[in-house]
């Protein structure tokens, strides 16, 4: 009886468990497939779909918008908890030193980007031979610099959170983190005891946000496909060809900035292969989403892979996503010369420097979202006394230019963060990073 009953009673179970194991294996394979390849495949398929379908491909735009919304949803809470955690983890004395280094390197890379944009613009002469468009809507004007400065200090923190005022959130988070850090390093045992649960709460918030980020990124390839397909479908090759000169100038400038970043990393003895191996994910994400703020969760993951401790990247990256605009500075320099050439206006070198300086200062108050570069360009055009109609030509391919400059912005943030971490001894060994990553899966 045992010989006849056992096979019959146990036969269905192996089939069921084998099916479960197969389904789980396929999902694990998808999760384990490198994000860069998922995004790369989605990008190529999006280009093909956009060229084949054309403007009607815009019907899938909500799929891309959903991806952007999910990323934007994470920005404010991620900035808040990571800055509080990062500022609270560092001693007050070292936090001031780190902040000075971060600002100094951000300024250095911006100066290099401005020089490249102006130099390539003067050398290549983008816009020469193109006709001035007869009509064109004026881009949205950038806020006055004094208003940008005052907006850093919110009257109501909850209103700043609701409105997505990143500068105000950064200010409040740094102040809270600094206060908690002061308590944590205080000689008073009671203050140290009170600070501990706040630090743990901020650390837990970071872990929760990173888990959510991982889930959002699994939807990323669908969003990337939709975003690229819509851009290519609406722009097409016909509208891109007359702007090839400007597009080539900006993309060449971005390539040279990547080289400059590499040289800067080498100067501080940073492993280039390991850096770009981790940076490729946020670089591609920034390219397709065109949002420095939206890419922030991915950039933070890359910093973690590089072994940068949270006390450094939790402060540097959110700040860089708001104020460090290397790619945008380069774009503004080249585009200003483009508009001047199209308009038939000769600008002196001093005028160009003044215009670009104003644009870079305005970038501090411009959100790291798609299309923000046109707002800054409008301010520069006003400063230089150039007609706004020529901006319509730039707007026609701004999405393609925005992709490159946003990628440069994000790369610059990560480069500065890695260098500052190196100088502060805030970089973990690769073996410890891999061990921690496995424990979080």
TrEMBL record:
Keywords, ordered alphabetically: Cell membrane, Membrane, Symport, Transmembrane, Transmembrane helix, Transport
Membrane topology per the entry is: Multi-pass membrane protein
Q: Quote the subcellular location field of this record.
A: Cell membrane
- Offer a single GO CC term for the protein: plasma membrane
Could you provide one GO biological process annotation from this protein's UniProt record? carboxylic acid transport
**Sequence segments annotated as region (Disordered):** 1-21
Q: PROSITE patterns, per this entry? A: NA_DICARBOXYL_SYMP_1
Principal location listed in the UniProt entry: membrane
Q: Which Gene3D superfamilies match?
A: Sodium:dicarboxylate symporter
What segments bear the compositional bias annotation Polar residues? 1-14
Residues annotated as transmembrane = 35-58, 70-91, 103-124, 166-185, 219-237, 249-268, 349-369, 375-397
User: Which Gene Ontology molecular function entries are recorded, alphabetically?
Assistant: symporter activity
Protein name per Swiss-Prot or TrEMBL: Na+/H+-dicarboxylate symporter
Q: Which organism is it from?
A: Brevibacterium sandarakinum
